[in-house]
Write a structure and sequence with these properties.
This protein is an alpha+beta fold. Helices cover 28% and strands 26% of the residues. The protein has three domains: 2-93; 98-209 and 388-444, Immunoglobulin-like, CATH 2.60.40.420; 226-336, Molybdopterin biosynthesis moea protein, domain 2, CATH 3.90.105. It is built from nine helices and 26 strands. Helix 1 runs antiparallel to helix 2. It binds copper (II) ion (CU). Copper (II) ion binds at residues 176, 392, 394, 396, 400, 403.
Length: 447
């Protein structure tokens, strides 16, 4: 059952038990769905009007349905008491001792995850809401002796594999939900509370990425080649309040005194159609730009002097389309964009002469796909670029989709190396006046 549910790969010690329970619940639901569905169809046929012209007010006399309902109840109680509650109690009751675990605080905010490590002394430094600013989202008091060695990072959670992790969760604003799909962790984060959770990662991010490795056909992508006609110029009748956002103006419109009303390149959205209507303009020249940016070029296009105008593999954005029009192109050879940027190649690839095209871990960009096709590479091994991440499982505001953290589970050696690097980055802050090297690399790449 678990294989059919499309669950993400599982890299935690408690994960198999959770997946097993999810599987059992789905089995029960499947049996109920088929059972009740069959019963419903049976009653429709058995008690149809033509066979039962008169309603029977006495109804069913047998106790069969009662037994069935008690049976369902027994299974549900069994799932709850036998599987769910023991699993839950193990998560909240039996915390490992802090000295044997990686302890980290995670403070959520709209829309980021602030990570706080206690440093080698194992003590979290004091934090205060009064110290919170853009450079110090945690409000960490660096003057506190316990805070001197604390590591902070935004959206980057690094953990060593095969060692329990204790996370203390809190939030600065609204309710968020800390979700590590690949480690079967999900916990709501409530303002004003510090909620602990623990789990043991048993697989590194690299191992999970390897598990998700799959073949991807470059040939298939390249086969989708098509002739795309660049939009021709049309006369568009302007009506107030009309939204024709995909129409791009191909002329400047000025009033009688020469003041610009609407410039070439602007789009005919509701505001702009109103402007034109106000000025009494009834018709303009425009081109429809709808859906063109979903295509990428399959050839290089040059201007009359022979200089590259648009390179191979470029998206047909407004800019590229405008460029192509200046040299009078009407058709271009293009293919639908593959949108594979969230994937990386899992092996290095070379061209025919042996010089490298892509290293392991390079993003599967449109440019790379073109290069690979040119070099005759028909199939590549790919995997998601970030197979382990922190998601927010709570619709916490308009920027919710931006609330994405990266989680890297590493070997103990790799983790130690990362940890030491972070510590070394903290040192100059207290010993030298050079403040440019003070910030740990991770925390600067936020928001
Ligand atoms: Cu959130």
């Amino acid at each position: 059952m678990e294989q059919f549910l499309g669950l993400p790969p599982d890299g935690s010690a408690h994960g198999p038990a959770i997946d097993h329970l999810i599987g059992l619940v789905h089995w029960l639901m499947l049996v109920l769905f088929v059972g009740w569905g069959a019963f419903y169809i049976f009653t429709l046929i058995r008690f149809r009007k033509s066979r039962n012209p008169k309603a029977n007010y006495a109804g069913v006399k047998s106790h069969f349905s009662n037994y069935l309902e008690v049976g369902v109840l027994v299974i549900e109680v069994l799932l709850l008491v036998g599987f769910s509650i023991p699993l839950w109690s193990k998560r909240v009751d039996q915390f490992p001792p802090e000295k044997d675990a990686t302890v980290v605080k995670v403070v959520a905010e709209q829309f980021a995850w602030n990570i706080h490590y206690p440093g080698p002394d194992g003590k979290f430094g004091k934090t205060s809401p009064n110290l919170i600013d853009a450079d110090n989202p945690l409000g960490l008091d660096r003057n506190d002796p316990d805070a001197k060695d604390d590591i902070t990072s935004a959206n980057n959670l690094n953990l060593p594999v095969d060692k329990p992790v204790i996370v203390y969760l809190s939030t600065k604003d609204v309710i968020h939900s800390f979700n590590l799909p690949a480690y079967r962790v999900k916990q709501d984060v409530i303002p004003g509370m510090s909620i602990p959770l623990w789990f043991t990662p048993t697989k590194t991010t690299a191992a999970i990425q390897e598990e998700l490795r799959k073949k991807y056909s470059v040939l298939d992508v390249m086969k989708k080649i098509a002739k795309v006609s660049l939009p021709s110029m049309t006369k568009v009748a302007v009506k107030r309040g009309m939204n024709m956002d995909e129409q791009m103006m191909m002329q400047d419109v000025t009033d009688s005194s020469g003041t610009m009303i609407l410039a070439k390149g602007e789009h005919l959205d509701t505001t702009n159609t109103a402007k034109l209507a106000d000025a009494g303009v009834a018709e303009v020249s425009a081109r429809s730009m709808a859906n063109l940016e979903k295509f990428v070029t399959m050839e290089e296009y040059k201007d009359t002097a022979g200089a590259t105008l648009v390179a191979k593999g470029e998206a047909l954005t407004e800019e590229t389309v405008s460029k192509l029009m200046t040299v009078g192109m009407n058709d271009v050879s293009a293919r639908p964009a593959a949108n594979m940027d969230a994937f990386v190649v899992m092996e290095p690839y070379n061209d025919r002469s042996g010089s490298p095209l892509a290293a392991k871990g390079d993003a599967v960009s449109e440019e790379l796909l073109n290069k690979l096709a040119e070099a005759g590479v028909g199939e590549i091994d790919i995997a998601p670029a970030t197979p382990t991440e922190i998601a927010c499982a709570q619709l916490c505001g308009l920027g919710h989709f931006r609330m994405r953290g990266y989680m890297t589970v590493q070997s103990p050696e790799e983790f130690k190396q990362w940890f030491d690097q972070q510590e070394a980055a903290l040192l100059p802050q207290s010993t030298s006046t050079d403040s440019t090297v003070a910030a740990p690399t991770d925390s600067s790449a936020v928001k």
